[in-house]
Design goal:
The chain is of the alpha+beta class. About 40% of the residues lie in helices and about 30% in strands. The protein has helices at about 10-20, 30-35, 80-100, 130-140, 175-180, 185-190, 195, 210-225, 230-240, 255-265, 270-280, 320-335, 350-355, 375-399; strands spanning about 1-5, 40-45, 50-65, 65-70, 100-105, 110-115, 120-125, 145, 160-165, 200-205, 245-255, 285-295, 305-310, 340-345, 365, 370-375.
Length: about 400
């Protein structure tokens, strides 16, 4: 017989999620601590005294008198088990009414498909196993699927993402050298030894003192792409909560080594002059690229997450940004990850992000998307009607 419990013990919750096969870091209590502009509840379903399903709910106040429940990459449940899913749904619905939530929004951690970008006939089945069964169970229990959207901004989490596969077709972990062999030779040429000879190297930090430099590089990307990212306070929260699992990666170049390489290899006069100017104005070593990587902490399918990247376009021909994404994959291999997720792309596969990420022999992860459990139909219809206008206003304010 199933029972439902709220505010479950955090240690018990952590023990459960560590063993959950399809765990994503956004269902950790640590992520809820980062998202402290939301309230948070840890819930669970017990079979007798054993925890068999759980979720971390983020609660956002929308306006006076009502809220929204958001369960990112949840529930942590066997979506094929309709009886268990129905019990969870009924209890979440009652809990939502208590908090005056107009909707419960979930975007489960399963996929419609996982296809290799360069050969879309080759499929993986890590997150896409039994999709139809899971999808139909949710629909039959009253969840409203918001659609198989392709716009990267249409859902809270991009529905299409690209990940570097770190396993082979037999689901065996590959080595770093085996990963490199999957890249096109033209791209592979600008990595590894190409960087070493020119004084480029990569570091990984877990120290909050390095956040300032990381954010400065994010500002370069903000300016170049006319977007708005996060501030120092936000990344301090991530380091505080994920500790050594949060890796701040830096791509640096020793300018004196690079200058010597140019001098020894018939470098152009303007290249040598540029390096001299940089040494005089910025010192003997500069940082050109950075990224934030979150490593998983579960025993099942392990996926690292490449969350934010910032690049100084100085000496762009060195391809430091290309090397730092590879460094993220290398660290993920060392930590026995199945995938290194490079993040969102357009579902039309025609944007600059797709072009860059596809170079890493990536798999297109087409996630199922969002499912809404409507609690208050009137408010749901009203908010959805005006949501596009509100989003535009929000983006204008951020700019």
């Amino acid at each position: 017989m199933y029972t439902f419990k709220t505010n479950i013990d955090e240690n018990e919750y952590n023990d459960f999620i560590k063993k959950y096969k399809y765990m994503n870091f956004m269902q950790e209590k640590s992520w809820a601590n980062v998202k402290d502009n939301f309230n948070n509840i840890l819930c669970g379903v017990y079979d007798d005294k054993k925890l068999v399903a759980a979720c971390s709910i983020l609660i956002r106040r929308i306006a006076k008198g009502f809220t929204m429940f958001y369960i990112p990459r949840g529930y942590l449940i066997d979506f094929k088990n309709k009886e268990l899913l129905e019990f969870m749904t009924d209890n979440i619905k009652q809990l939502a009414k208590t908090y005056k939530a107009y909707v419960v929004k979930i975007d489960p951690n399963f996929c419609v498909s996982e296809k290799l970008f360069k050969n879309q006939e080759k499929e993986f089945h890590i997150y896409s196993s039994k999709f139809n069964k899971k999808h139909n169970n949710l629909l039959n229990l009253g969840y409203k699927h918001t659609g198989f959207v392709k716009d990267i901004h249409q859902n809270i989490q991009p529905r299409y993402q690209m990940a570097v596969p770190l396993i082979n077709e037999n689901n065996e972990f590959i080595t770093y050298e085996e990963l490199l062999k999957t890249f096109k030779s033209k791209f592979r040429y600008y990595l590894g030894e190409y960087h070493t000879k020119r004084g480029v190297y990569f570091t990984c930090s877990h120290d909050k003192k390095d956040i300032k430099e990381f954010v400065e590089l994010l500002k370069c990307t903000e300016k170049n792409k006319n977007i708005h990212l996060r501030n120092e306070e936000y990344f301090n929260k991530i380091i505080n909560n994920f500790n050594d699992r949060a890796c701040i990666l830096f791509g640096k170049v020793n300018l004196e080594t690079y200058k010597k390489f140019l001098a020894d290899n018939n470098g152009k006069e303007e290249e040598l002059s540029q390096v001299d100017d940089l040494i005089n104005t910025r010192g003997k070593e500069i940082t050109l690229s950075s990224a934030l990587l979150i490593l998983p902490d579960n025993d099942g399918i392990r996926c690292s997450e490449y969350l934010y990247a910032g690049n100084d376009l100085t000496l762009n021909k060195l391809n430091v940004s290309g090397g730092i994404a590879l460094e993220a994959a290398k660290i993920s291999i060392e930590n026995k990850c199945h995938y290194c997720n490079l993040g969102g792309i357009s579902g039309n596969l025609d944007d600059s992000l797709t072009k860059f990420k596809s170079k890493y022999n990536t798999v297109i992860l087409e996630f199922a998307g969002e499912y809404d459990l409507v609690i208050n139909k009137t408010k749901y219809i009203f908010i959805n009607k005006f949501k596009p206008i509100l989003k535009k206003l929000y983006r204008l304010i951020k700019k």
